[in-house]
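As described in the Methods, two query proteins were run sequentially through the folding procedure within a single session, without resetting any intermediate state between them. The first query and its resulting structure tokens are shown here.
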Amino acid sequence: MRATAATAVAAAVAAAVAAAATAKTPLLSKEEYERRLERSLQYIEGAAGNTFHCCKEDCHGWCFYGPGLNRFPCPCCNSVNCVNCRAIHDPMNCKEYQAYLVREAEKNEELKQSLNQLQVSS
């Protein structure tokens, strides 16, 4: 009896898969597919631990990183991110950017906080 039920379920699943493969309408709308894909990518990015997210506001680009990765050219927005500084400071190099932060930190509290974060993480 169990084998018959399992066989029936397997046959039903196989039929559903075959029907979906030949269906003229997709199983998910484009919007639903994009929403699920975005959620899956956000989960992977958060769970992996060795990821870097693009610093440009509202950009969804990110990468896995390891030793030696200093720059991340974002494929979504084309910004060049500095992984070490966790900032977009192209065309300045890291030393120029940090000197800029020191100069500007005297005038701007937000930059002062960024500079403090850089010094803590270095």
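Immediately afterward, the second query was submitted; its sequence and tokens are:
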Amino acid sequence: VRLVRRTIFTTRSIEEAEILPFSRVPLAPFPILSRPDLDVGAATTARPQRLQWRRRPVPRRRPACPHALPAGSYRSTQCRPPALPTSQGSASSPVQPESATLPSPRTQHRCPTHHRLTGSPKMSDGEELSDRQKREIAVWFLSNAPAGEIHYVAKDVRALLGDEAVYEAAAAEAFPEYNKAHLVSLELPDRSGDLIITTYGELDKNNYLDPRTAQVATVDHIKQNCTKLRPAADEELPSAYIEEFRSALDVELSKYICEAYPKGVCAVYCTSGKDIDGPGADFGLAAIISAARRSPQNFCNGSWRSIWTLEFNDGSQFVEIKGKIQVGAHYFEEGNVQLDTNIDCKDSTILQSPEDCAVSITNIIRHHESEYLSSLEESYLNLSDATFKDLRRKLPVTRSLFPWHNTLALSLTRDLAKELAIGK
């Protein structure tokens, strides 16, 4: 037992462990007592006592090789090279270079004398992350927050970081991308409507165009509100010919939103050809729909986002329609259940007058969104009977159905009585 304990608990590897006969194995203390990360009770030389284990913080260990660098350390030192033979055949003293090359973080340095790996890219236990790594982790958490919950996540991330500068850098990077990805809608300062944060209306980092009111709003991404409002310049707006198609589609789409999404908003942007003054050229529009329902007091939030790109081809007299619908939901009462699903749609219609095109395009959008919503509802109805049932084992290990009609046949007490003749 003492030999095994000496071999297992030694700080050295098993290949380097000194195997002693039983008569030469010392009774006290074992090499484990010299480990800096463990505090054990003293053992007497007459009879070893039970070791008392008490954890304490692990200090930075001294590397086994005197020339090796600790893991993650990149000081301007280098392991001493082995001695080289001279022309007379004698070994010369090792030469230490004046300026040593720093080891690459992605490469491992092998000490030729002690054969230990140093300069590993992996961080040792207790080593703190750099500010850049902390910022990247914080950005990931903020960007992947469920719909309408980024401020709750930001509060926890801020407390975990404990560094205001790192948090502000992460928030400045994550909040704009989150707002554009989730099509967050903000109320305009004059309460004339709602502004959708989207790349189609982005003029610069903080200024976004509202095509319905022909205004440009300055947005505070972190606070998620509009701070300033100004009239849009002429070069920021489409031509009168394009505006006819855009405004007609905006009117029809708003009617559909009022019917389908009580708290939804929509906007129509010109994506290409905004300077066209008449028929004979191609142009493009983008219809954005954003609806969110937030009920944190009931532990649930959800969002519906759809983007429809419209290509008006004057040559073929057709309008190509491509859409992407994204649905997200989060239910977190005594658990954490999230839904994140999307679907791509494609359709077309005939290029007509602005009013007729608007009605036709809106009907196509209504058809695809209603069809997708029906498919989601149908999948929910079959969730318990089909999906969850398929997760269970079809048959038990015996490969036979359980005899519910004769459960006494599998009585364990009856089988034991037969085998052991109990009760006779």
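The domain at 131-231 is CATH 3.30.1140.60 (Ribosomal protein S3 C-terminal domain). We note this only descriptively and draw no conclusion about the first query from it.
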